[in-house]
């Protein structure tokens, strides 16, 4: 596969600085690219690495200087253009429609003729696998589930009964949707299980990372909004609702009945106590501990979560505690020792 | 299925305020319940939501006011009553006894005639699956394991060799019991694996969440006490012993050789360093970091863990650091600037 | 199996204090050992437990006193000697070469005649399983993978396409290597997936714990150096490189493009922000949050990470905040109340 730089520019709505006829055969990292490759500087602070690269062409945002001997493909949003170019150069391999002879499809389950079911996959009773969907090797779909059009369950993904996936979802290996919510009524010191009779529902275009756990609701549903992307090893407690187009990084933990608005971003290992609301567009730093509801568009960090600028000042102040302590001692010395209360 | 309110009251040992003849067809959340449903206010602070609900009947604790047009089912312990009513309305589906023709049962393994083994499950040599137990699709039981009466392995649960489950345990999908403890002897800068020759033992009625990892002991056993409930994505290091009726929330991490007493509760992401003891009834807040042994019944929080009231005061003090810093500066000004030591 | 103590001493290069002819039949913990067993005091501070043990023989480092009636096996590095003795008394069970009849080996895949493939395992197209390697029950190997000589995939391990394992690696149950890196280009508020076209490569003798997730690189490779050991439930983001002989404890999270040098040790739940470098031999305490590059051999702790001694002082200072606050108040009182700024 090879393209002229001008073709690529047209595809992504950009313009060429330099030779529009340059041939691009591959997309490569700055470190490995050669003269017939296009590469990409992901962060402005790494621009020097771009200039040192052997790449014949570079994808850049506006305002970049053109290094000698290199051609530029200039776009407004280079990360987005890069994503589209990667999809062009690395088209997803089509999965052949059909059910592997070793797959178990239980009574009443319906697999669309244009769906793919891999070896040793199990599709539970009355579940539905829609056109273009793929249930890969050893994935398990419980009873009464729906796998929407074009959605993919990677090997070893598990859906408990009644889980519903919209269109274009992707559930990675080892992710488990619909596990029992962690609910007990403690009576005489014993933890009596509260049956969890709800379900998990993913709207369209949701991605769920490796070994992530999303528990089903005790009564209604745990719901993940359209376009939301969840990384690996994330814990989503029962009855949680997550809005549209959120980003949850690795190892985040949401306690039960958390409600996230749209466009929320939580950094790695962030956590929420349950029964609280996080407003639209909130950005939580890695490992933030959200212990009460947060208004829309706040930027927060710390444990407990506070506004980011205040958190940063607090971090500085903590680093100065030694100095503060010295200064208090000095003041006491100048006043003739500690006061009566202390001594 | 429908019951008169009076019947439900009898079952849970409560009393009706209002019409004992009211028909209850389903248990629903406050938001979705209608006149033929019973609903439940899980927390006193949510009582207003109960009054706004369309539920015909409400399950409540003592002292609740009866909203107009609603009937009350009043009990001493509403959460416990709710758990029992859910079990009545949503009985667990029985799993048919028998071994799926695709399951692999290795030589010397014994599956009780009243046990269920699902498709593509693997039961290792000399393992025993007792009456009423279920090894669901694609679960893997190693060699020399015991699955006690009525215990359930959900799809994709894995037991390494020699793991023993008591009666009535539930191991959720992706949980792995008996993995190699993380033990190395570092010699000349290389990490030489210390063979882990112990096992994992679960007493009765233990529940293990999705994708939780419990490592086997290096020599003896990693033991989880009866009635203990462990949430998703929890890490339990080798040689750990956990008492009876403990609760470990999501993403907790216990380092090796931790000893928890009975009735210990640890919030999400809490952690222990190894080789320490946590006394009976200790309650650790979410993300507490337990770095030394803790006496029985302590309530702790923070990193490192301290008594909860002290932790709360400390949190307030940290939030006042800016003010403290200003006050020190002010004192210095009043004394004519910083002392000699500082400049 | 039984050995004379003198034989064991010869094997591990130690010497006997007491009776070299004592028979040792088993290695047991201090609590369970009897007169025909050898036991081991893992930490010097536990020496009293060694003296209280019923073990006939004790493995110890130099300088230990010989308790009455016990024989000592004295070595320079007792943990290393213990590891070797355990391997002697508990040899790994050999896995028979051959492919289980239920395993699926896709076209173009090559399984060495001296490799073992268990029930319901799946080996993807063009993958290679080398001599002495084992792909256990229900493990899934994608396309174009390599499982090097003697490497083991435990039940339910998953390799995405193009993953390469060197020799002598061990991947535990539920671990997933090669999952999609978490990369999106956000455009008009939607998260557009950036195709992840790189791979994961493990050098020789790497061990990966239960349910750990290691994402493949967006372009090049996520690489784990020889001899590195990774515990359970660890998250390794895409494009990360980890040096040789590192130790990552349970629930560590490395964000994308982290670079760890050789011999790095990170305690449980430690985390890194991405795009930073951690030098050779750095030791990070449990839950350290590494937010910028760290020079070689630093010992760090805290959030954000600082040098360990400074962190320990800071912890003490935080615990004294209440006292500092009182002392400030006292100084103000002695100067006749707070200054004008405060009121």
Could you walk me through the main structural features you see in this protein, from its secondary elements to its overall organization?
The structure is a homotrimer of 343-residue chains. In chain A, 56% of the residues are buried. Chain A is of the alpha/beta class and 343 residues long. The longest helix of chain A has 14 residues, at 321-334. The first copy, chain A, contains 5 helices and 40 strands. Chain A is 15% helix and 29% strand. The model of chain A has no long low-confidence stretch (mean pLDDT 95). In chain A, the strands form 6 sheets. A 12-stranded mixed beta sheet of chain A has the order 8-11-14-17-20-25-28-31-34-37-39-40, covered by helices on one side. A 10-stranded parallel beta sheet of chain A has the order 9-12-15-18-21-26-29-32-35-38, with no helix packed on it. At the B-C interface, β22, β23, α4 and α5 of B face α3, α4 and α5 of C.
Mean pLDDT of chain A: 95
Strand content of chain A: 25-35%
How many angstroms does the end-to-end distance of chain A come to?
A: 82 Å
Q: How many helix segments of chain A?
A: 5
Largest interface: B-C, 60 and 64 residues
* Spatial ordering of strands, largest sheet of chain A: 8-11-14-17-20-25-28-31-34-37-39-40
Shape of chain A: flat
Biggest sheet of chain A, in brief? 12 strands, mixed
Quaternary organisation: homotrimer
Q: What is the β-strand count of chain A? A: 40
Helical fraction of chain A equals 10-25%
Q: Poorly predicted ranges of chain A (pLDDT <50, ≥5 residues)?
A: none
Give the SSE map.
Three copies of one chain form a homotrimer.
Chain A: E1 3-4, H1 5-12, E2 15-17, E3 23-24, E4 26-27, E5 37-40, H2 47-52, E6 57-60, E7 71-74, H3 78-89, E8 98-99, E9 104-105, E10 110-111, E11 116-117, E12 122-123, E13 128-129, E14 134-135, E15 140-141, E16 146-147, E17 152-153, E18 158-159, E19 164-165, E20 170-171, E21 176-179, E22 184-187, E23 190-193, E24 199-202, E25 207-208, E26 213-215, E27 221-224, E28 229-230, E29 235-236, E30 241-242, E31 247-248, E32 253-254, E33 258-260, E34 265-266, E35 271-272, E36 276-278, E37 283-284, E38 289-290, E39 299-301, E40 306-307, H4 308-319, H5 321-334
Parallel strand pairs in A: 4-5, 5-6, 6-7, 8-11, 9-12, 10-13, 11-14, 12-15, 13-16, 14-17, 15-18, 16-19, 17-20, 18-21, 19-24, 20-25, 21-26, 24-27, 25-28, 26-29, 27-30, 28-31, 29-32, 30-33, 31-34, 32-35, 33-36, 34-37, 35-38, 37-39
Antiparallel strand pairs in A: 1-3, 2-7, 22-23, 39-40
């Amino acid at each position: 596969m090879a393209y002229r730089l001008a073709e690529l520019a047209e595809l992504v709505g950009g313009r060429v600085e330099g030779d529009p006829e340059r041939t691009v055969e591959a997309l490569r990292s700055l470190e490995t690219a050669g003269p017939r490759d296009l590469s990409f500087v992901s962060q402005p602070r790494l621009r020097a690495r771009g200039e040192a690269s052997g790449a014949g062409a570079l994808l850049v945002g506006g305002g970049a200087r053109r290094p000698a001997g290199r051609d530029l493909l200039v776009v407004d949003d280079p990360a987005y253009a890069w994503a589209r170019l990667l999809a062009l150069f690395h088209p997803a391999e089509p999965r052949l429609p059909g059910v592997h002879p070793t797959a178990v499809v239980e009574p009443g389950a319906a697999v669309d003729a244009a769906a793919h079911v891999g070896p040793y996959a199990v599709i539970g009773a009355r579940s539905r696998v829609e056109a273009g969907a793929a249930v890969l090797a050893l994935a398990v779909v419980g009873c009464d589930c729906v796998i929407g059009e074009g959605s993919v369950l990677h090997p070893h993904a598990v859906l408990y009964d009644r889980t519903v996936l919209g269109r274009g979802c992707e559930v990675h290996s080892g992710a488990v949707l619909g596990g029992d919510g962690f609910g007990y009524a403690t009576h005489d010191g014993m933890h009596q299980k509260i049956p969890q009779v709800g379900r998990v529902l993913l709207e369209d275009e949701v991605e769920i990372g490796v070994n992530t756990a999303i528990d089903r609701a005790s009564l209604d549903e745990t719901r993940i909004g359209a376009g939301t992307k969840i990384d690996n090893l994330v814990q989503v407690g029962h009855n949680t609702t997550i809005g549209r187009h959120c980003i949850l990084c690795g190892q985040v933990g949401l306690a039960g009945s958390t409600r996230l608005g749209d466009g929320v971003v939580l950094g790695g290992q962030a956590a929420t106590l349950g029964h609280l609301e996080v407003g639209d567009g909130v950005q939580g730093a890695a490992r933030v501990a959200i212990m009460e509801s947060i208004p829309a568009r706040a930027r927060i960090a710390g444990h407990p979560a506070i506004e980011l600028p205040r958190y940063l000042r607090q971090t500085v102040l903590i680093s100065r505690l030694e100095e503060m302590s010295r200064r208090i001692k000095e003041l006491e010395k100048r006043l003739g020792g500690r006061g009566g209360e202390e001594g």
